[in-house]
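Hi,

I'm pasting everything inline rather than attaching a file, because the server keeps stripping attachments. The sequence lines come first, and each chain or strand is labelled.
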Amino acid sequence: MRRINKFIATSLLTLAATGIFPADSSASTPNVGVVGAVNPAAMAELDKNRRVLELGKEVIFNERIITNADGNAQILFIDKSALTVGPNSDLVIDKFVYDPKKSTGDLVINSTKGAFRFVGGALSKKKPVIFKTPVATIGIRGGIAIVNVDAQTGATNATFVYGIEMTMQNANGDIQKTTQPGFGISLLTPTSRPTVPVKVDTQVLTQQMNTLAGKEGTSAGAVGDVSDKSLSDTSALTVSEDTTTETTDDNGGGETAAVETSTTTETKETASTTESTTAETTTTETKTAGTTVVDNSAVAKGATELQTPSTTKNFIATKFTSAHVAAVTNSVVARPQFICTDCEFVSWGIWDTNSNSATASNSIDLKTAVPVIRGDVTQNLGQLARTGNVNYTGKAIGNIVYGATAGMGTGDLLATVDMDNRLLSSLSISNFTGGGVSNVTFATTGPSSIAASGGATFNNVFVDNFDGTLGYISGTVNGALFGPNAQNIGGTFNVSNGSNFSSTGVYLGGE
Amino acid sequence: MFNEIKKYKSDFRKSICAFAITSIVAFSPGMLVAEDNEIIKQDFEKTFQQMLANPADIDVTLRYAELAVKLEDYEAAIPALERILFFNPSSKKVRLDLGILYYNLDSYDVAKDYFMSVKNGNNVPEDIMKKADGYLNKLKAKS
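And the predicted assembly:
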């Protein structure tokens, strides 16, 4: 079988080299490339037959590549892509289709653990190369990326080194992307949202590079003298004295820098055009798939607080965790379900007039506590690629004064936003219960506009919502969309029946 | 220019001295007529097949990297040199060239990492160190 594979592979390579592939043919090749470099303790496994990876040997489609703590390797693909595999890694080439005439096809790599550096060849210039991990699907388009997959949890970090773009998608279809070299995206679980791209710390990058580098004293399977001296004697790595004199000043700058700048500018212009086209394509694909694309260029800087606290109040919690809920539970009612797991870009807490401590374990005066909301307000909603009606579900929480009773109540949030017309179509808080009242509903009666530029904020009212016990309830509701792509909604509400009931609180929700 | 290419084809080892990144100047595709560029492309493809057939051949790998640089396909040159670094992890010359390649791709953080690895190395030749310092200064000016 292996002989047949080798025969087919050799034939394909020969065909590719001579350019006699039919122009419209694609081939699902058994041989995807060769082992370009390998240090010991790297294995390949196909159909449960395991072999030691050897320099120059072919890598077969669907073959599993495994390295232990001392192993690493570089796979050279026949489309000129290269994959460096670090120690303690495990991967399978899930899919490889390459048409050398058109330079098109697909490459899908599946990894359960390890460290990798992918450098794109022909395939990634036309279409993203896909890198799957236990929690994430990474798309690398026209470029270079470093991927790290945690062996225990599958948590994935990817650093975009160069290229058109890198995307990371979770199991729900939520996508983050970056086009900035040196920026990274992480994903902890299959259903958590990929993080907004952040600049990778220099030390972290160095660590990633070191993990993927050959270790001193190893030779990656090379035979013969590969010392620096040997290389300089025979290779291009020695700078010609004449060339240096003509083109480089003493500091590696000067004339060379000027030429490089010119070259770089031309390259950038080309890249810019490509990027623009790519962005449009991605947006279209995303709309069709119904997924969320987060463009880091739209990320609002810094959290915005929708309520201005007085200086005499202390913020109890910037984001309620289970511990915070437990603290509230002890003194009020059990509402562990209040945590909104989808609300990445907005959080809530309580300003308490009587507590001087910023810890959740201190008692909260529920009569005077004012829930507040903080988050990254969506900017320039009119420029985002959001269409149709988007439903947000979540929770509401507020203090309640009902006659002589005071307490904290919680309810369910449902809001609908018309993205085409940038309207808050409806917002309701139902099953609002606590502080002596139960299952009260407040709902808007008409739409209100959401700002197209600047912060995506809105104002609306609750008018004459009838409750069998409390009578007619009216009030105001203010809020905003949160997150770079309007993934969350949140805000404040203030309601009363004009006599013995009033409540002030916050709500938040996610798509 | 045609004679230059012809000379390159007939005496690779001599002309290969122009590699490093400075060869971009001498062999910038913008300066080549399309026909010359096509010759390099054909050689590039042919060399790639030779490299696939024998990835342990360092000369072929270096030649492939050089042709990639001539075509300004730095992305193709990088894995070739990184593979040579696998063969010889202590090579400061390869690290310098990789730093320059990443610099040309505007991937400044990775470039800096390679230049710093040169700067922090032992017994680094003066010319290599000087170039690494030069690029580190350029990166500093950009930050």
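Chain A touches chain B through 76 residues (CB under 8 Å).

If the labels don't parse on your end, tell me and I'll reformat.
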